[in-house]
Amino acid sequence: MAMSSRSLGALAAFVFLCSAASMSSSMAATDSFLQCLSASIPSQLLYTQSSPSYTSVLDAGIRNPKFLTNTTRPVWIITPTNASHVQAAVLCGRRNGVRLHIRSGGHDYEGLSYRSERPETFAVLDLVNIRAVRVDAASATAWVDSGATLGEMYYAIGKAGGRIAFPAGLCPTVGVGGHFSGGGFGMLLRKYGLAADNVVDAVLVDAKGRLLDKNSMGSDVFWALRGGAGESFGIVLSWKVKLVAVPPTVTVFNVPVTVSQGAIDVVTRWQAVAPSLPDDLFIRVLVQGQRASFQSLYLGTCDALLPVMRSRFPELGMNRSDCREMTWIQSVPYIYLGSSATVEDILNRTIAMDTSNKATSDYVRQAIGRDTWSAIFGWLARPNAGLMILDPYGGQIGSVAEAATPFPHRGGVLYNIQYMNFWSAAGGGGGGAAQRAWIRDFYAFMAPFVSKDPREAYANYRDLDLGENVVGAGGVSSYDAGKVWGEKYFRGNYQRLAMAKAQIDADDYFRNEQSIPPLVAGK
């Protein structure tokens, strides 16, 4: 992040010229914004809709084919390589009335990092070129740039030592920036909590173009970045994280159980067992069709795991033949990509684009009864049905106070549910009506059996069906209207997030359909 004194002087002059101009109430001319950018950012890093590479650059970071068509696209794409480029983009955007959408990996479930639900003139700031991972094994810390993928981060950590890891998500193509901003959990959540729980510093470009760290941004904003929809507060360029200890050998297993083999009873039992197991043992469930697959990571050997499974969860019938021992870094591709995948495969930033998808989420605080699970499997047997992923909580994630970070789904949560459905991408953006209807109707069916007042949801499984921002006459998102979706994601932390937003971005420059609205204290 270091810059020469000459660069700092030039940037200071640029800040002086640009910061005096307030955001225009109408969209500035294309030429004005582009000219402003070109003064500080090399032309090869800028793409207009007429650029030959525009479509390939935009589409490279789209992870859901339904957003390839029938959506509002950016007028410009900016691919910065350093902090000064990002600062210039913010200042030019404010000067010319152009908002920025920030893309790290492109996995936003509603595509808001690169598109808009509403007609507007905006630019995408794609962090693909700001993706370094700097691991300090001696101090068990790392600086991870927001444009890095989880796979790139895991790979660098694995190369640095066989007994260090980091607790984050399963999908290796997910971008660090968005994942950390929403909390971020994976197979280590019961042992070490969220990715955001393990963030100890960050570098942020705010709406004034300032480059801030943990101390200069202030405690409220630093709190907000770690699980509170970080794109609402500015552009996080890099995160300092503390790494966690893992043994030289871990054990994974995947045990499928069909309905005819007793899946309904085993899943019903799993609800009581999984959140109370030793923290070293994580067992999630993928429920699809008439099958439940129990996928596990254990921080230890098979010999140590088997007695735990026999005493705590004999209903699963797991035995030695189900064990696969390996290193932690080997478990990353094995669990998500399959048994034939290699560690190098997690560096691949591309994914198959043959299916579109729709998802939403729930939290369960009281175990669901067997009769209801029988009905759930009936829903999963219907035509055009999707799937459920059940991630158990308890352990470390549940031991953190609800207000300690913006992520509030802590003590008392048994597990998270992700609902997802898929359809052929050949149908374009207008396809999938039957699959989306299944998600909508199944979500309605589940209402009596999940959390209430509010019905909780996970911010990283973004769902615009939960509600959207309403922008008032002053060009600022309504705090009260945002409660509809904001309290589902953040419960009682929503108000503090809105107050932090007012501290760092009172004019609501960093805004999308589900960004945190600003709330000025006393209003």
UniProtKB/TrEMBL annotation:
Q: Which residues form the FAD-binding PCMH-type domain?
A: 69-246
User: From the UniProt record, which GO molecular function terms apply?
Assistant: FAD binding; oxidoreductase activity
Q: Which Pfam families would you find in this protein's record? A: BBE, FAD_binding_4
Signal peptide (from-to): 1-20
Which keywords fit this entry according to its UniProt record? Answer: FAD, Flavoprotein, Glycoprotein, Signal
Tell me which cofactor or cofactors this protein depends on.
Answer: FAD
Q: Return the protein name.
A: FAD-binding PCMH-type domain-containing protein
| The species this protein was found in | Oryza sativa subsp. indica
